[in-house]
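## tool: complex_structure
## caller: assistant
## args:
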Amino acid sequence: MSPEPWVLGPAQAVLQGLNRVKRAPWLVAGVWLSTLLLAMPLAIVLHQQIGTHLGGSMAALGAADGVNYDWWNEFLAQTSGVGASFVPAILGFAAVIKNISTVADDVTAMPLVIAIAVAMYLLVSLFLAGGIIDRLARDRDLGAGAFFSACGVYFVRFVRLGVIASFVYWLIFGPYHAWLFDALYPALTADITVERTAFFIRLALYFVFVVPLYAFNIIFDYAKIRAVVEDRRSMIGALVASWRFVRRHPVAVGAVYKINILAFLLVIALYYLIAPGASADTLAFAIGQLYIVLRVIVRLLFAASQTALFQGRLAHAGYVARPIPKWPDSPAAEALGPR
Amino acid sequence: MAQPPAPIPAAQQAPPLLAGPPTQTGVSPRIANYDIDVTLDPPTRTITGTELITWHNQGVLAAYSIRLHLYWNAFRNTNSTWLKQRHLAGDDPFSNAEADDFGYTTVTKIAIVNEDGSDRVDLTKALHFISPDDQNGDDRSLAAADLADAIQPGQTLRLRVTWTGKFPRNFDRTGVIGNYFFVSQWFPKLGVFDQGWTAHQFFANSEFFADFGNYDVRMTVPKGWVVGATGVEQSRVDAGNKTTHRYAQDDVHDFAWTTSPDFIEKRQQFDMPGRAPVQLRLLIQPEHEYLADRHFAGAAAALKYYGEWYGAYPYPALTIVDPAWQSESGGMEYPTIFTGGTRWLSPRYSNDPEYVVLHEAGHQFWYGLVANNEVEFAWLDEGINEYSDSRVQAEVFQPNYLVQRFFGDFIPWQYRDIALQRATDTNYMNEYRRAPDRDSISTPTAMLWPGTHQNMSYHKAALMLHTLERMYTWEVMQKVLSIFFAKSKFKHPTPGDFFDTLNEVTGKDHKWFIDQVYTSSNTFDYAIDSLRSEAIEARGMLDSPDGTLKFQQPKVEGPYRTTVVARRLAAGQFPVDLLVTFTNGEQARVPWNGQGRWQVFTFDRPVKAASAQIDPERRLLLDTNYTNNSKTMEPASDRAATKWSLRWMVWLQDLFMTYAFLV
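## result:
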């Protein structure tokens, strides 16, 4: 059944989303900055750990100009906390592989301090989510005040939604993942003598793992979008409404999600081609940050295209139920006004 | 003694490439000789066998009993010494094992036989289990039987043993998974008799020890299955749906074999001027077929370099077995046959499979020919072999980049920025560094803490030998090892023999070295504590020519007194050099016996020092913390820390973005 001509298609939604992100450069900059500011304190700690370990040693010369792998191993054998995460996999594209592999294999496989940093980043993201969706939904710049007003208004609601999401994600990453990879996978491969076969079994299980992950991810995404666009206060209501929307537009919703995943894959493919080696210095950092900016754009594209799709199907472009916040004049302005 | 192979019809002979005399050596003492018939029954995972052991007492004492290893009983139940040791190390391979996963050996009959093969004395009832090493009454890996008539020096004992063996699941070296059978330590095997029996229970840490002899073995397996074994195939006879493969090899001290219908067979000939050719046979898993040439390259490198450095490989054939995935039988050596082990995805320039093939092929020299007691001094073969293969890797297989695997340990990622180095990486310095003091190399191998066997027998031993190389040069070490090899070939040398050779070649007594490095579990850590260059002239109140006290400032432009404080931060003592480099390029080198906890060195020069290094050539490879061995007046640590913390920050930002989809 072909959609009605006035119904927004997935490709149009993604294009609209891209344009909305393009029209919100401060949003891109802000989200990028949030990653930078949260990572920086730990980077300073690591800087101190590395600096202390190297001291005045001549080993520092090799470490500064290239990779001094022997020193690196020595450092890892003696360090803890942040330093324990300073492993070869931080180099270039290996970082991407390692991080995705961590999500796929064991989300807890990181030092506690890194896990706390990730949790803090997710909390900040949750705070920013309302403002981001509001900005992308309205598709026009209302200023920082309105942005943070929306952040504040929706933060408490999203925390409530987050509690439900956390439980669902815990089920998926916890018992469900354990059942798939700690019970089912060993049972399926116990007598397999061909590594390739075992790999394809694992690949299939990754697929089985990500299906509910993505399904719930989509529902939570649209719940946030409906909460913002329709100014919903009940997050259970938003979830139910999200489920209704997804159920009624499964193809379009799925297609938008897949196109966004494709965009993500394109970005990491690009990074694979340009990811710097160990010898470069300032340029390597710049390339790394450019990659992070592209990841931010893809992340915002997810939200923008999903919002565009929802608005195109159930509301209209730029429609947001909540009025634009208007602050009362300051007492000083009142004093200047007519008595 | 094994009978010479009977003539066989041409139609039944093995492919001509491997056919030939079972031996070209004839130089071992041929003490324990085995003539074995064994039949494999894959559905029940069992073997039934009969062996005739012809044992010559070449010792100086009479033997009043026999010792028989029944290694598969290590897998009989969780109370075996082998499994208790694994449990102690926190590893429980049998924790989820089913009944079919356990393995055992049951001797159904053992008898002393006459030369004509008739029974003389039935020892079946006299055979009993002993546990001399740990008094574990539940362990059945070693059996003994008293003899009514002692076997006097020069006399021969003929034993016929009939047994059944139930394969364990492959947990360690031997066993079955799917239709891949790796059959090692599978037959009742005599201990070594010299000043009495040397025979130990089967420990998780230790490997094996046996006397040289001639082996003639007939293995009956399902028709169409590929067989690889110690020695050279003599014949292949079909009978119904089964085939009997006969392999023979003289002058070896063990016999292992494998069979599977899945192997792909490849062959190459190794040629070396002045040496007999060696037929290389590779039994490779189909998914690894593209790595066949890299397997051959590893084996050829061992034969070439070990052959040049130490001595000739005397056997006509060498079989490389690529084990099935999850078989746990990889990386293990047996006479003229060994297992490699690689991965489905194995990037070039990663030395996988080259390293493991090279290492196990190297064991044909250090273990196969120089047959030290691996239960007591495994470092002699493992350490020398790791040291040697590391050297070969540096000569042949470069670059060797670091590889790590992701996504369930399947997908390899190769770090082209990190080329592994011989001194630290392929000597496994990083493994040693993590637990350097939990044991000493000199501890009998079986008695090492289960988790530190590798660290001591392989890594510390290799680092120790490489330290000796840096003390004396490779030419000296090569001489030491080649003389030791020549003296020990087809014998059972001890560590004392090795150190005697070292003393003899270098003309020095190494008691201090043995005390510090070999016998002790001490670690080593030398450091430069401080480096200062200050004006020599004193500052303050000094006598002036007119006899009065005057305040004096030192000249700014020098000369300078450079003061270096060196420290020994760990218990281990080792003589080291101090090298100071001055800003004009001049260098000063001073030896330090390294015995005190600290030492101050001073140098008066017209210029300041630029840097100071202790052990600048890194002769002491056992120093676990080399970063603190140097100090420079212009540290680059801030630059390095900035570079790496920024690099790390990108990774963390990517981690944030990876998890961001959840919000």
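## assistant note: The longest strand of chain B covers residues 46-56. Chain B touches chain A through 76 residues (CB under 8 Å). Handing back to user.
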